[in-house]
Design a protein that fits this description.
Structural class: mainly alpha
Number of strands: 2
Shape: globular
Low-confidence stretches: 1-5, 397-405, 805-830, 900-912
Strand order of the largest sheet: 1-2
Radius of gyration: 32 Å
Mean pLDDT: 75
Distance between the termini: 74 Å
Largest sheet: 2 strands, antiparallel
Oligomer: single chain
Number of helices: 43
């Protein structure tokens, strides 16, 4: 980029001096091949904005320079040592911590996060359009008198006796029968013919005939090729070409090349569609077709982008190598077999006998080529072997479509699968492109040497590990086991968070991170800037996948975001035969539990609160960067970048682009990313998901606080007591510690239970382990001890608690295991006490409601019941704790006397 023409802030001048010093350092030159790229990427991950706009930041401090220098020095030291970190750090730190240590990992993680959010936005938009289509088709079914009452329809759906459920079952049976025919199973052809006849009758005699009509309106008659959107668009295309020719005769300069995809249909065009009898179609059907047309346009764009990502980036050709010609041929083959042909129609036909998931089988072979093309590959496959493998696979795949082509009439399944497959292909192609690009850059960033080679191997290993997490390679391979684990994780979410009002209340407290990161003045100015721009923040965030529409942050953290899609057919490469794998009952249960978990009322509240928090942060980040770039120097930079005098629209476009990216980065920084590749390695794998459920937030929150502490300390050590980072540190203390204490003085309630500082609470609990008595430890860890009480592991915890309650297991109270795991002996509990523990284990909220909240409501103590649900206990609880410590049984005796006074009879209690 070069040095700025004008002087900016003093810290920025020092950053440029540090850049020059870094490039000129002889030790740096020994191990780093491209110091400019290293410096640029480290700044981007450290400051969350690129260097070209960082220089317009007037809030930089000397502490920022100090922190950046520490990062650079640490990188050079690590390269010389040949390692990125120790083994414990590699397991416990989240990838963001490593992104700030290594420039290549920083670039990769940033691209992964943006890609994942973009993919999430695509899915949301696609599902919205598909949902609109299905709603219109159901309205059409009702108009024709097919749909019964809501109660009857719901009953059929639940009991799996609806026409759609029957069609789904027939779909599976026909696919299996076709596989048997292909594998020469005796009697398979007769079975197939019976199933196909049953399917014809089902679609003829039920509401599913609406799907067949929909297909006709889209594509027309398959034999004649007439009728439907395809025929209509073709006629309009021909008319446009003829009009263009006539125009060229009078004005040759106005002649232009017209492609089929240039034709844009309007509402008037859709009204021209007729049914098989020549009648105008109904409004619901027309609305379905309009939305379908928009959806397929989006899918075409997504598939094109995904294909181009593979062709142009994943299969990168190394100029001058012996493999260049072979790679060029593979590019041509991929273009021919993957790129959709816009003219062949809008309906995504899937042949049942060829539905072998070409894309999924292609992925590993593309990965092999990417890794084999890297000088730092870990696999033994050579580039030549990888190329041969891919060429053989491509040549064996045919994408033919002959007359009599057998397609699935199951509109809902076909279109739904096509949407998922296309978006997934786009996602994986972009993820693979980012990985391949970074692997290429690693080779130029670092120089070869004995120590640096070892460092590069570690970096590449980390990159491969992140990539495996991003595409689901390290997930559980057995679908039954994976579904069982997802079911348990989903149930634990429902049990511990999904019905707990405290979850939503505590979510709301995360908005205070905005007050820590940004000053009140900055928040007000940024919100005003966004308001003046008239920015559609919600739509932008929806398109970028930053908002939650169906699940909640904690649910995505718990059960994952992109589970592997079920595939009914796969090719066994050893036997060369098709294998049929219908969705198992366990997979259906897992899907149902996930749906229920995301539909609970509290999950909805958590989703709403999280979206409000993220929306506020997005506005602040966007407004801050936009205002920062409103200066003449930014215009000069854009002029230099474009090599011409940029128009005001071009400058504004770039300004908004930087503002949007910074806003996304700040949302991810303060409200965290919940994809697997953003989690610490120890909780990323199958076992880690179970043991470390709900722990990702704790990891990220601790790292965020450590960031505030280090940056604030850097400002203070640089004698900038009122620097930006120092003020952030002060606000951290005021927000999470001073404010709850002051609030408790005004209203005597434990506000710290809502405005919770997760990291401090964990440290406080460990302090209790070393300096508290046995009762303190039991209360701090809910009777589960330091290890299980800290890491959570709710699945294991609940199993052990239930086992102890019913004496299935007996734990040695004197043993070291009990000291660490800390499970109290529930065997002596009886009656209501045991019932309470069982209910609390199965559902935290239900246990609390039945044994605490409900009795208070019956007594008329509405205020206390609400306080109890939110955890706003009276601060006198601390006094009670001290009294119990020095006078055991005092409050139990008091409660007993109170019971005698109110009812004339006491409760049986065991005094200590």
């Amino acid at each position: 980029m070069g040095r700025p023409i004008c002087n900016f802030s003093e810290p920025m001048d020092k950053i440029f001096e540090l850049w020059d010093s870094f490039k000129g350092d002889k030790e740096v030159q020994k191990v780093i091949g491209d110091p400019d790229a290293v410096f640029y990427n480290l700044i981007k991950s450290e400051m969350r904005m690129p260097l070209e706009v960082l220089r317009f930041n007037k809030e930089l401090t000397k502490g920022d320079v100090k922190g950046l220098k520490r990062r650079l020095d640490s990188l050079v030291t690590n390269i010389k040592k040949g390692e990125m970190s120790g083994n414990i750090a590699a397991m416990m730190y989240t990838p963001e911590a490593f992104a700030k240590r290594d420039p290549a990992i920083g670039e990769l993680l940033n691209e992964f996060i943006h890609t994942a959010q973009y993919h999430k936005g695509l899915n949301v938009n696609s599902k919205r359009l598909f949902s609109s289509i299905m709603s219109s088709l159901k309205e059409e079914m009702q108009t024709r008198g097919f749909m019964q009452s809501w109660i009857a329809s719901s009953g059929k759906k639940i009991t799996r006796t609806s026409a759609q459920a029957q069609a789904d079952r027939l779909e599976e049976q026909i696919i299996k029968a076709k596989m048997n025919v292909k594998n020469d199973v005796p009697g398979a052809m007769r079975k197939l013919q019976e199933l196909e006849q049953r399917e014809i009758e089902l679609y003829r005699d039920s509401e599913l005939q609406v799907y067949d009509d929909m297909r006709y309106f889209i594509e027309g008659d398959l034999k004649t090729g007439k009728g439907g959107l395809k025929d209509l668009t073709t006629k309009l295309w021909i008319e446009a070409i003829e009009a263009n020719k006539k125009l060229a005769e009078t004005s040759p300069k106005k002649k232009k090349f017209i492609e089929f995809s240039d034709i844009k249909l309007t509402d008037v065009d859709f009204e021209k569609l007729k049914d098989r009898d020549g009648n105008t179609i109904s409004p619901p059907m027309r609305n379905a077709i309009i939305n379908y047309h928009d959806l397929m346009g989006t899918m075409y764009k997504n598939l094109s982008n995904g294909t181009e990502s593979y062709i142009d980036a994943i299969l990168f050709a190394k100029k001058g190598t012996v493999h260049e010609e072979a790679i060029v041929k593979i590019k041509e083959s991929l273009t021919e077999k993957l790129m959709p042909n816009y003219e062949t129609g809008y309906y995504p036909h899937f042949t049942r006998d060829l539905n072998i998931d070409f894309i999924s089988n292609l992925m590993p072979k593309l990965d092999d080529l990417v890794l084999a093309s890297s000088n730092y590959k870990q696999e033994a496959m050579t580039p030549r072997a990888a190329i041969d493998q891919l060429q053989n696979y491509l040549s064996g795949y045919t994408k033919s479509r002959a007359e009599g082509y057998d397609f699935s009439p199951n509109f809902m399944n076909v279109v739904g699968t096509y949407i998922n497959e296309t978006n997934r292909f786009n996602y994986i192609s972009r993820i693979n492109r980012a990985k391949a690009d970074v692997l290429n850059k690693v080779e130029s960033m670092y120089k070869k040497g004995e120590s640096s080679d070892h460092y590069i191997e570690n970096a590449v290993s980390f990159i491969n590990d992140l990539h495996a997490a991003a595409v689901g390679k390290n997930s559980i391979k057995n679908p039954q086991t994976a579904a069982f684990v997802r079911t348990l994780l989903g149930f634990e979410f429902i049990s511990k968070l999904g019905m707990n009002p405290r979850s939503a209340a505590r979510n709301a407290s995360q908005m205070f991170l905005n007050l820590v990161q940004f000053s009140p003045k900055m928040i007000l100015e940024s919100h005003q800037t966004v308001k003046d721009l008239g920015l559609g923040v919600e739509q932008i965030m929806m398109d970028k996948g930053l908002l939650f529409t169906e699940s909640a942050a904690e649910l995505e953290e718990s059960i994952g975001i992109n589970p592997s899609m079920h595939k009914m057919l796969s090719m066994n490469e050893q036997t060369g035969k098709l294998e049929f794998k219908p969705m198992t009952k366990m997979e259906k249960v897992a899907k149902g539990v996930s749906t229920i978990a995301g539909s609970t009322p509290i999950a909805g509240m958590m989703r709403k609160v999280e979206n409000i928090n993220r929306g506020s942060t997005f506005k602040i980040g966007y407004g801050r960067m936009y205002k920062m770039l409103q200066n003449p120097q930014f215009t000069e930079y854009i002029n230099g970048k474009l090599g011409k005098k940029a128009s005001s629209k071009e400058v504004e476009k770039h300004r908004k682009h930087y503002a949007e990216n910074y806003a996304i980065n700040m949302v991810m920084s303060l409200h965290f990313d919940y994809n697997d590749f953003s989690k610490a390695r120890i909780i990323r794998g199958p076992a880690g998901k179970i043991i470390g459920q709900f722990q990702h937030f704790g990891f990220k929150f601790a790292e965020k606080n450590w960031e505030f502490l280090k940056k604030g300390a850097d400002d203070i050590m640089s004698r900038e007591l009122t620097g930006t980072n120092a003020l952030n540190l002060y606000r951290l203390g005021l927000t999470y510690f001073a404010a709850p204490y002051l609030a408790s003085m005004l209203i005597p309630a434990d506000w710290g239970n809502l405005l919770e500082h997760d990291t401090y609470n964990r440290l406080e609990k460990w302090g209790t382990v070393f300096w508290g008595d046995d009762d303190d430890v039991k209360k701090a860890f809910y009777g589960k001890g330091p290890i299980m009480g800290q890491i959570g592991a709710p699945i294991i915890s609940d199993i052990m608690t239930i086992g102890s309650l019913y004496d299935i297991i007996n734990m040695d109270e004197e043993g070291l295991g009990n000291l660490l795991l800390g499970y109290q002996d529930y065997g002596n509990l009886t009656g209501d006490q045991k019932t309470y523990q069982v209910l609390r284990t199965l559902n935290t909220t239900l246990g609390r409601f039945t044994h605490r909240t409900m009795p208070q409501l019956v007594k008329g103590n509405l205020g206390y019941a609400l306080q109890s649900e939110l955890g706003l206990y009276h601060t006198d609880k601390k006094a009670q704790k001290q009294a119990e410590k020095y006078a055991p049984g005092f409050y139990e005796a008091l409660e007993l006397l109170e019971g005698w006074g109110k009812t004339g009879r006491g409760k049986k209690k065991k005094f200590r």
